[in-house]
Specification:
This protein is 80% helix and 0% strand. With 59 residues, the protein is an all-alpha fold.
């Protein structure tokens, strides 16, 4: 069972590491409100999707 969980967890961790590397999504020092948090998170995820799409097109 632990190997099955590890096989699932590894690609998910790699995806989140890539998102953090490309966008810096974990830097929340200036977020003060829930609205600011949602704007920050969705803006960073949008940027990650843009980078991912850009990499797909240029390959």
């Amino acid at each position: 069972m632990p190997t099955a969980i590890s096989r699932i967890r590894q690609p998910i961790k790699a995806l989140f590491a890539w998102i953090e590397e490309k966008t810096g999504i974990e830097c929340l020092s200036k977020v003060r409100t829930y609205k600011g948090l949602t704007l920050h998170v969705f803006g960073k995820l949008g940027a990650a999707l843009f980078f991912w799409n850009f990499l797909q097109v240029s390959s």
